[in-house]
Amino acid sequence: MIQVSDRIKAIAPSMTLAISAKANELKAAGEKVINFGVGEPDFKTPEHICQAAKDALDKGYTKYVAAAGLPALKKAIVKKLKTDNNLDYDPSQIIISNGAKHSIFNAVFATINPGDEVLIPKPYWLTYPEVVKSCGGVPVYVMATARHGYKVTAAQIENMITPHTKMLIFNSPCNPTGAVYTEEEIRKIAEVCVEHNITVLSDEIYEKLIYGGETHFSIAECSPEMKALTIVINGVSKSYAMTGWRLGYLACPENVAKAISSFQSHSTSNVNTMTQYATLAALDGDQTAMQEMLKAFGRRREKMLEKLDEMKPLGLDYVKPDGAFYVMLLCDNLYGKKYKGQKIHGSMDIADLLLTHKKVAATPGVCFGDDDALRLSYALSTADMLDGLERIAEFARECE
User: What is the DSSP letter of 323?
Assistant: First the structure.
């Protein structure tokens, strides 16, 4: 029998996939399942982006390009970073990869040595610690509580720094909480990172999905010193409804970009060429569809929060999200109660019971390091969303 490596054994399987598989089984059996676990926009990729890919095929753009990315697309990303984030980069500092997740892996693999500690605010996107562990690093969690809006402070980060701390993974807007850090909060965190020479992996994939008058601010904007310590991660999956196209990118100091380019040339080579031409159309083309998608998410968010306010007397609560398309539903007041004779111990129990008895798929907070909540996505139709929330309310009412 072939033995798998120790490093692959250290990686935990995705709990979200297990829930998704069970939800799909119920759907296949004819059940109407309301899926709040979706981590992607439910909108179609805008037509002009699809057309750009078709045009690339028709023109014969089906060959290899540079491993680090199509030069024209790298220039478009440089322009985007200057226009949107006031950040100056050279195309040689841009690496285009197979999704933002791939960009994150490349960044950690290129900078973290075995035993290096990586600070990760918790709740976290469940892939962060698994990537760190797969690269030999040690995840160290900084707790962002609901009471403080699911945000960590500069003081919290500084208190966790040891001689082994190498990196902070920073995500704003945040998956799973929807938290958006203010410029002032980010500048204070940047001061700590510069003082202690901490690399920051800044995951900005939800940058365009912000509501309620809040704005996005990249930590790399804080100072030249902070920019020199930052690896900016972004992509087109969330902003342009291009999850399946698989294109992400990073911007970083040139020595890191050169190392990642070399590694990627041996691991995956270039992102598929047609996707790169499609992304060029996304960044340089008409932004109307993206703006309309943002407005639709904003309307759904308001409807969801209105319904959740009505559900508070049932022992459910939430922290108002300002970005992404998620809400953390605090359900810990139900722990210790019973549903149909089964005692509720944590978020996984509630997720299982909701799926089994109410045909509602929600992601348990334990997946993100916070067992007090469920993550609910509003990347689904308003009608399904309200139906699903009412099913959750029924569940809470029926708990004893």
Answer: B
Contacts for 86-93: CB closer than 8 Å, 24+ residues apart: 86/221, 87/218, 87/220, 87/221, 87/227, 87/232, 87/251, 89/251, 90/254, 92/254, 92/257, 92/258, 93/251, 93/252, 93/253, 93/254, 93/257
**Using one digit for the tens of pLDDT, what is the confidence trace for 154-190?**
999 999 999 999 999 999 999 999 999 999 999 999 9
Task: Give the residue among 147, 227, 146, 145 at the shortest CA–CA distance from 186.
Answer: 227
Q: 157: helix, coil or strand?
A: helix
List, in sequence order, every beta strand (DSSP E) within the chain.
34-35, 94-97, 117-122, 138-143, 165-171, 199-203, 230-235, 248-251, 317-318, 326-330, 338-339, 342-343, 360-361, 363-364, 373-377
**Coil vs helix vs strand at 176:** coil
- What pLDDT digit, counting tens, does each position of 41-94 carry? 999 999 999 999 999 999 999 999 999 999 999 999 999 999 999 999 999 999
User: 160: closest CA among 169, 150, 147?
Assistant: 169
Q: Residues 6 or more apart from 55 whose CB is under 8 A from it?
A: 277
Q: Give Cα 319 to chain centroid, integer Å.
A: 18
Residue with tokens 């469920």: 374
Contact 178, 321 (CB under 8 A): yes
3-state class of 374 per DSSP? strand
pLDDT the model gives residue 20: 76
CB 193 within 8 A of CB 168: yes
- Tell me, what amino acid is at 322? D
Are 151 and 184 contacting, i.e. CB atoms less than 8 angstroms apart?
no
Dmax of the chain from CA atoms? Answer: 65
- DSSP letters for 207-262: TT-B-TT-----GGGS-HHHHTTEEEEEESTTTTT-GGG--EEEE--HHHHHHHHH
Alpha-carbon distance of 55 to 51, in angstroms, equals 6
- 């100091």: which residue's tokens? 253
Integer angstrom CA distances of residue 48 from 78, 85, 157: 21, 25, 43
Say which residue the tokens 């697309």 belong to. 73
Q: pTM of the entire structure?
A: 0.96
Look up residue 368 and give its DSSP letter.
G
**Residue 294, Cβ density class (10 Å: 0-12 exposed, 13-18 middle, ≥19 buried):** middle
* DSSP secondary structure, 177-202, as one string: T-----HHHHHHHHHHHHHTT-EEEE
